[in-house]
């Protein structure tokens, strides 16, 4: 059983995706939050006694304390790995699809890289202020990953020209 301290600011998604509250997240605060989440993942993946793969890292699973310090929460889907084990396989895919690494969603292969993929999606959400699966993207982009990739490709083509 895990017990959490009371987090008066609720979860990160309650700030990111609220048109009024998101204004409280300036660039310095967003960077502070991202940096702390990255440090938390580093601890789970490398520094804790057992390697922990979260498998459901997303904005609603990041709690914010009184000073807006983030805490990774909801370890219900997490897997502990012993020794130097860095990956695993499961026949039961669980988690939130918009944040799942492709190899996990399709084949059940999870690893620290799966959490890194989820962190990347979370990073894009924090920077853009939009949900991964929001239907507000122009053209054919149906999620934040495709949107970021199309922007990257357009920028890369400008550099080549």
UniProtKB/TrEMBL annotation:
UniProt entry keywords in alphabetical sequence: ATP-binding, Cell membrane, Glycoprotein, Kinase, Membrane, Nucleotide-binding, Receptor, Serine/threonine-protein kinase, Signal, Transferase, Transmembrane, Transmembrane helix
Subcellular localization(s) per the UniProt record: Cell membrane
Domain Protein kinase: 1-161
CC per GO annotation: plasma membrane
GO biological process: defense response to oomycetes
Superkingdom to which the source organism belongs: Eukaryota
InterPro entries linked to this entry: Kinase-like_dom_sf, Prot_kinase_dom, Ser-Thr/Tyr_kinase_cat_dom, Ser/Thr_kinase_AS
Membrane-topology annotation of the record: Single-pass type I membrane protein
The keyword Glycoprotein belongs to this UniProt entry's keyword annotation: yes
GO molecular function term, any single one: ATP binding
UniProt key word Oxidoreductase: no
Record-linked PANTHER family: CYSTEINE-RICH RLK (RECEPTOR-LIKE KINASE) PROTEIN, RECEPTOR-LIKE SERINE/THREONINE-PROTEIN KINASE SD1-8
Family label: In the N-terminal section; belongs to the leguminous lectin family. In the C-terminal section; belongs to the protein kinase superfamily. Ser/Thr protein kinase family.
Protein's recorded name: Cysteine-rich receptor-like protein kinase 15
Organism this protein belongs to: Cajanus cajan (Pigeon pea)
